[in-house]
Each structure stands twice: as C-alpha cells, then as structure tokens.
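Hey,

The postdoc asked me to send both predictions to you directly instead of through the lab channel. I've kept everything plain text so nothing gets mangled by the mail client. Protein one:
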Amino acid sequence: MKTFVTILGLASMVALAACDSKQENKVENAYENQADALDNQADNMEALADNLSGNAENAAENAADAIENKAEATREAGEKAEEAVEKKQ
C-alpha cells in the first residue's frame, strides 16, 4: 500500500511540476523530505517489529503505523502550504 501511495504521489508531483513556481517547489520539497524521513523511521520500526514477538511486536507495529500516519499528515500539510503559496502568486 505504501508503495502505491508513493508512486501515486510521485506521479502527481511530475504532473504538477510543469506549473509550479520555485517557491511552491521549495515548500513541497521541504514537506516531502520530512515525510520521507518519517517513512524511513516507520520502515525501521517495522523491521524491528519483525525481530520481536507478542506484545512487543504489536507495540512496534503500532508505533510504525503512527509514524506512517504522521508522514501522510505531513504530506497533506505540505499540499496545503503549497496551495497557499500558489494563491499568493
């Protein structure tokens, strides 16, 4: 699922790249970089969960899910910030 969302996001960025200003791209890149870092943390947490069992595994998987949700919220915030920049232009 995460791969599908990433591919969809990349396709959207490519489609919009032609009409974005440098400032919009800067805002978008900042949020996207932060979201990517969060996704990496979630991946690491999931790898850790694979080496655990029982309640510890569930806790690690829940933490990974929470981080993934934060990454998605960051991407959505980035889109809103980018739209705000676009409206100012």
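Protein two:
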Amino acid sequence: MPPWLKVLPEGVELAVLVQPRASRTRVVGEHDGMLKLQLAAPPVDGEANAALVEFLAKRLGLPRRQVTLVAGDAARRKRVFLAGVDAARVEAVMSQAS
C-alpha cells in the first residue's frame, strides 16, 4: 500500500500535495510520500479545496458528501477522508494516469 493511503474503519484517508493554478486538474503521481495533484483552480476563497473534493469524488465515483477535507485547509499538504470506499480501489484509480 502506498504511503499516502491510510485505511480507517469507516473508509480511507489520503495524504495529498496540491499544486493550484495548474494548466489542468490531474493526478501527477507520488511526491515525498504524498499523492500529488495539480488543480486548475486558484488557491482563493476555498476554490482549490472545492476543486479537490469535486475531482476526487468524480474520479472515484463517490457522492461529494463522502469526500471530506480533514486537514490542511489553507496549506498545500492536505488530508482528505473518503467514506465507505475500499483502499485497493482508491489505489488502483489514483495510480492510473489521468
């Protein structure tokens, strides 16, 4: 299991490194033990956080309410909780090139 994926009783937690204001939103790969994502949204008024939640929900086929930003609200390093999802599925989906 990759270091950025942590299994919890109710789901999984991702350790994410975001790069806002990228040309497009996509998974870049692993960086420093975290899952690196580029987000097209700017880090203004929570836009990047909203884009992150939306991207993860859509990519994993989850309703938005199952994706929660746990830590790192104003930082590039964030922790995101995904409720009711299988770790193997998250790893498989996130490891695919976007």
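Summary for protein two, as requested: Residues 12 and 87 are 6 Å apart (CA to CA).

Thanks,
C.
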